[in-house]
């Protein structure tokens, strides 16, 4: 049995029970590996890959061990094969059909993002409730009215719904996509969505991320830290 076959068997045996924290880092490793592959790099050490991904090498080796990939001592990891391993674990060796609901500035930017197709995602529907936007062509797709949401989900085989609507519309839209059979939602609306068990929601809130960065900037700058003084009457 050659090393590739050994790795494949180990990967198959270890593909269950991967910690959520590891799953969250796999796309970061994949992005770093794809950059290496584009530069023609064939093998990479754990230290080099960890540096490119912004983690320590011990954590990276432990994460990759969950995939059954341990590298070769003195050589490192085979870049192309590790790309395949991680892509397969993340489900990126098949196409996932995406619908974007809400075609404001953010929705337009997402629709025009060229990186989806190369990462296994195909945007097949753009929907909005604003009649002035319906009918526009964006990134090769015609914006449809949200009245057609269920039809597009069914006809296009949508697996992932991206919600980029105003906050007030997000929950009703989420309810509709879930009722239509979608079980994965990426939420950009500034609201927490309520979904039934078995539906996965990932929330992206840019304002929260900026506020966290502002906190760290204040700490680094030695900004105002008010001390609470007990005042007795």
From TrEMBL:
Indicate the principal place this protein occupies in or around the cell. Answer: cytoplasm
Listed binding positions for NAD(+) are 102-107
Where in or outside the cell it occurs: the entry states: Cytoplasm
Q: Which residues bind DNA?
A: 28-67
UniProt keywords, alphabetically = Cytoplasm, DNA-binding, NAD, Repressor, Transcription, Transcription regulation
- What positions does the domain CoA-binding occupy? 91-192
Question: Iron as a keyword?
Answer: no
Instruction: Determine the domain of life of the protein's source.
Output: Bacteria
Q: What is its biological role?
A: Modulates transcription in response to changes in cellular NADH/NAD(+) redox state.
> Which PANTHER family does UniProt cross-reference here?
REDOX-SENSING TRANSCRIPTIONAL REPRESSOR REX, REDOX-SENSING TRANSCRIPTIONAL REPRESSOR REX 1
Subunit text: Homodimer.
What protein family is recorded? Belongs to the transcriptional regulatory Rex family.
HAMAP family recorded: Rex
Name the UniProt record assigns to this protein? Redox-sensing transcriptional repressor Rex
């Amino acid at each position: 049995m050659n090393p590739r076959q050994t790795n494949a068997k180990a990967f198959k045996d270890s593909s269950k029970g991967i910690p959520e924290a590891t799953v969250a880092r796999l796309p970061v490793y994949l992005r770093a590996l794809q950059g290496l592959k584009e530069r023609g790099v064939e093998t990479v050490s754990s230290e080099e890959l960890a540096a490119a991904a912004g983690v320590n090498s011990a954590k990276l080796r432990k994460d990759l061990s969950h995939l059954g990939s341990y590298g070769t001592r003195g050589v490192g990891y085979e870049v192309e094969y590790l790309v395949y391993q991680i892509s397969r674990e993340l489900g990126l060796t098949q196409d996932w059909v995406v619908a974007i609901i809400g075609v404001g500035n953010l929705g337009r930017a997402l629709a025009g993002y060229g990186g989806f197709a190369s990462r296994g995602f195909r945007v097949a529907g753009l929907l909005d409730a604003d009649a002035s936007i319906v009918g526009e062509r964006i990134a090769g797709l015609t914006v449809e009215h949200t009245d057609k949401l269920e039809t597009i989900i069914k006809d296009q085989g949508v697996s992932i719904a991206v919600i980029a609507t105003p906050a007030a519309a997000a929950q009703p839209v989420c309810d509709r996509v879930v009722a239509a059979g979608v079980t994965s939602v990426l939420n950009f609306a500034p609201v927490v969505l309520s979904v039934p068990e078995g539906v996965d929601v990932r929330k992206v809130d840019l304002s929260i991320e900026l506020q966290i960065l502002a906190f760290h900037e204040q700490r680094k700058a030695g900004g105002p830290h008010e001390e609470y003084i007990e005042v007795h009457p």
